[in-house]
Amino acid sequence: LTLEQGQKAAYNCMLNLLANLHAKTGDLNKIKRFVKVLAFVNSADDFTMQPQVVNGGSNLLKEIFGEEIGVPARTAIAANTLPGGIACEIEMLVELK
């Protein structure tokens, strides 16, 4: 994939996480802050732009929730393979009000 396609995959992954949060909480306004994002990026051995891939999802949080709530600590890790050949996998820790 290109960097842009990876960013789109991270964006879609983050949308899925937000949909799940909404389903569980009933209201995304219950989010006090995003604490931590852990992302695994399916990468070739010579690919080193995992943080830029994850920006596709992280920037969405910042856009929707602003810097105070939507900018968590972040880790972007390269993986030589992910389940089903997916481009990225993201896990997040959220503090609720």
Description:
- With 97 residues, this protein is an alpha+beta fold.
- The chain has one domain (3-96): RutC-like (60s Ribosomal Protein L30, Chain: A, 2-Layer Sandwich).
- It has helices at 3-25, 50-70; strands spanning 31-42, 73-79, 88-96.
- The protein has a three-stranded mixed β-sheet, covered by helices on one side.
- The termini are far apart.
- The model has no long low-confidence stretch (mean pLDDT 97).
Layout of SSEs?
Blueprint: H1 3-25, E1 31-42, H2 50-70, E2 73-79, E3 88-96
What is the compact description of this entry?
With 97 residues, the protein is an alpha+beta fold.
Q: Rg to the nearest angstrom? A: 13 Å
Number of helices: 2
- Distance from N terminus to C terminus (CA atoms, Å) equals 38 Å
**The CATH topology is what?**
60s Ribosomal Protein L30, Chain: A
Structural class by sheet pairing and helices: alpha+beta
Q: From the 3D coordinates, which CATH architecture would you assign?
A: 2-Layer Sandwich
Question: What amount of the residues lies in strands?
Answer: 25-35%
- Low-pLDDT stretches: none
Order of helices and strands: HEHEE
The side-by-side strand order for the widest beta sheet comes to: 2-1-3
User: Could you state the CATH homologous superfamily?
Assistant: RutC-like
Largest sheet: 3 strands, mixed
What distinguishing features does this structure have?
single chain; 97 residues; alpha+beta; 60s Ribosomal Protein L30, Chain: A; three-stranded mixed β-sheet; 2 helices; 29% strand
